[in-house]
Amino acid sequence: MEKNNLTDHRVDKTIIRLTIPMIFGMLSLVIFNLTDTYFIGRLGMDQLAAISFTFPVVLIINSVALGMGIGTASIVSRAAGSGNHKLLVKTSTDGLFLSFCFVVIATILGLNTIDQIFTLLGAGNDVMGYIREYMSIWYLGMPFVVVPMVGNYIIRSLGDTKTPSIIMTIAATVNVILDPLFIFGIGPFPEMGIKGAALATVFSRMITFTVALYVLIFRDKVVKFRIRELKDAYESWKQILYVGIPAAIVRIITPVSVGIITRLISAYGYEAVAGYGVGTKIEYFLLAFVNAMSNVMVPFAGQNYGAKKDYRIIEGMNYVRKTMFKYSIFIFVLMIFLADKIAPLFNDNMEVNKITILYLTILPIGYGFQGMLLNNASILNAVNKPFYAALFSSVQMFVICIPLAVTMSRYIGIKGIFIALLISYIISGSFSYLFTKKTIRKKRIK
Length: 446
Fold this sequence. Notes:
Elements: H1 11-43, H2 45-82, H3 85-111, H4 114-120, H5 125-140, H6 142-157, H7 162-184, H8 194-219, H9 230-265, H10 270-286, H11 288-295, H12 297-306, H13 310-342, H14 350-360, H15 367-382, H16 386-412, H17 414-442
Helix pairs in contact: 1-2, 1-7, 1-10, 1-11, 2-3, 2-5, 2-6, 2-9, 2-10, 2-12, 3-5, 3-6, 3-9, 4-5, 5-8, 6-8, 7-8, 9-15, 9-16, 10-14, 11-15, 12-13, 12-15, 13-14, 13-15, 13-17, 15-16, 15-17, 16-17
């Protein structure tokens, strides 16, 4: 396959060309979450709280998968930029094999630790039954969630953001159709409640699994399964995990912090947990543009690094920073006027909606700073400096956010927790930008 070259055309046009289809892919992931939240919210507050408790755990699994995808894409994009097709094929194949091995281990552990994990998150007996119903099915369907995540990152690293977005959009559409059928038992389908939401997710993800493998094996011909010495795979895995583990840590920090924040908020009741859960899922919709633009920096920075055009990476950083801040201001103003109209769409409980509205009118002003952190993490991963990305994200949550959230919640309640999140966005985003720009300008990253 001839790669889509990201090293020659105008930087701003190249980033936008990659970002636009990526936005639709990100929105499709959001649709998965919002669809489940909307229909499960129709079942009742306990079911909505249950799905909110599952959110951090699902995000952790997804984060590990994304880490493996980023680690694989970092090497593949650099190989594409330098024209090393042999390394490209070998890394793509070994990356998918690694994701499958992870799925086997995670499924076994997950199924045997449901009660322990969610008890730690603050779930009581009244919601634990719903959590078991959902997660027992979700864990079994994990191969269809994890493997295509890595596959789609490989496709993007070649400069193709359209195909993964189309795949995810189709899958999201199927999920929207199946959710009400399985949850409420419409037509010939049995009423399965929260289990139906999990089944709808698994069935729709089968589409991403099948199509992603087809594209990689038959269309692009960058994955070739063949028997060889296992140590060859180990060598690839070490290189993938060198970037993938820190990248996964960066992604895991968010759900871990969501879990900690969920635990803090659970002291205020299930209504507060449900409201926070709805708020974070709406936020994923609002952050689709930010996440899309950050993710395209992996193939963009990787290919330009492989082609020894570091100056284009800095130009891309500056363009993304300005664009993200404009978007952040727009979303903040929008939520001031629309948050109280959006929240009731997911639940009719006034206390739940009150927390959701509070969340959505505080956090958006910091999205530009959070976008900078994500963008800089993508660049550092792409140019083989993943530990700095992990360091900034770790400091953001465990040095700034969590201590502030614990302290401020004692004085101003849940509002203090949300303000702590905002402060952590501002500080970490600013420092990560200055550091990344200085590092790239100082010398060519080795």
